[in-house]
């Protein structure tokens, strides 16, 4: 028995050819889309690599080894603080050089905190306020915005001295070590232009909502607030970074866990549960 297999008609052959052509076009378009996607992914990967390299270079540059020892700015204390005696003066420094290798790590940090060398004024003298603060700390910025003017008024009236222990606790969250660089800038202003220190304090924390600054921007801000042009080289050269590192390490060893941490006449102020102006005024009255 034979089976008849008639040849496809011309119309059928044309339809089949069109279908194959359509399939080929679809395959080509899919291949082109895959190629385009691969190209885009390749470009994105390259961009990510470049960004990673840039960030790495920034971190390496800002995390360059800080010397163990270094100079102390005007107003500097043995604990790594800067003692302010009026709105436009700082005290004479009490030490010429700091060396982090002289600090002994405790078996465990004390609790409650026991900061070294807290100043307690004698009867009849301006009381002392010691503050651990960080340039990258939002709560420090809020504290300055709330009480900065009052602190300057107490300084102007001769009621208080204020020791700013500017620490770099929050460097761990900053690829540019802004906490330590900000503290270095503060030390530079105290050393080069002590009369501008309090103005720079206000400006530095006032800038907090706008984010971190480069050293050149820190220098510009300092000059805009009364510092001499010479502050630029001090900031750019990280002159007082060893001093900042010393203050930071000493604070950690002494159990000061966060910023701001405030001590009035040697006693810790309970931020959030006590009223700051009330506690300071009580201490002023008690020391008359």
From TrEMBL:
Ranges where the Thioredoxin-like fold domain occurs: 126-270
Coiled coil regions, renumbered to chain: none
Keywords, ordered alphabetically: Isomerase, Membrane, Transmembrane, Transmembrane helix
Residue intervals passing through the bilayer: 37-59
UniProt keyword annotation of Hydrolase present: no
Keyword Ribonucleoprotein belongs to the record: no
GO molecular function: isomerase activity
Protein's UniProt name: Protein-disulfide isomerase
Record organism: Glutamicibacter mysorens
């Amino acid at each position: 028995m034979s089976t008849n297999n008639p040849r496809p008609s011309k119309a059928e052959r044309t339809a089949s050819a069109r279908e194959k052509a359509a399939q080929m076009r679809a395959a080509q378009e899919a291949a082109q889309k895959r190629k385009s996607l691969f190209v885009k992914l390749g470009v994105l990967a390259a961009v990510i690599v470049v960004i990673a390299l840039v960030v790495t270079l920034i971190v390496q540059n800002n995390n360059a080894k800080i010397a163990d020892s270094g100079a102390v700015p005007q107003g500097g204390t043995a604990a790594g603080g800067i003692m302010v005696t009026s709105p436009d003066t700082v005290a004479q420094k009490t030490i010429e050089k700091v060396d982090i290798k002289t600090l002994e790590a405790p078996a465990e940090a004390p609790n409650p905190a026991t900061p070294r060398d807290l100043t307690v004024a004698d009867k009849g003298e301006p009381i002392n306020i010691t503050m651990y603060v960080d340039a990258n700390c939002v709560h420090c910025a809020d504290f300055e915005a709330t009480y900065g003017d009052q602190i300057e008024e107490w300084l102007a009236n001769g009621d208080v001295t204020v020791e700013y222990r500017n620490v770099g606790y929050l460097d761990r969250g900053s690829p540019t070590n802004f906490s330590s660089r900000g503290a270095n800038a503060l030390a530079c202003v105290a050393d080069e232009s002590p009369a501008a220190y309090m103005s720079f304090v206000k400006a530095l924390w006032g800038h907090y909502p706008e984010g971190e600054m480069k050293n050149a921007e820190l220098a510009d801000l300092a000059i805009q607030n009364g510092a001499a042009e010479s502050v630029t080289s001090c900031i750019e050269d990280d002159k007082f970074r060893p001093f900042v590192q010393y203050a930071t390490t000493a604070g950690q060893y002494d159990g000061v866990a966060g910023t701001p941490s405030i001590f009035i006449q040697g006693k810790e102020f309970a931020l959030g549960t006590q009223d700051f102006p009330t506690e300071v005024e009580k201490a002023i009255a008690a020391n008359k």
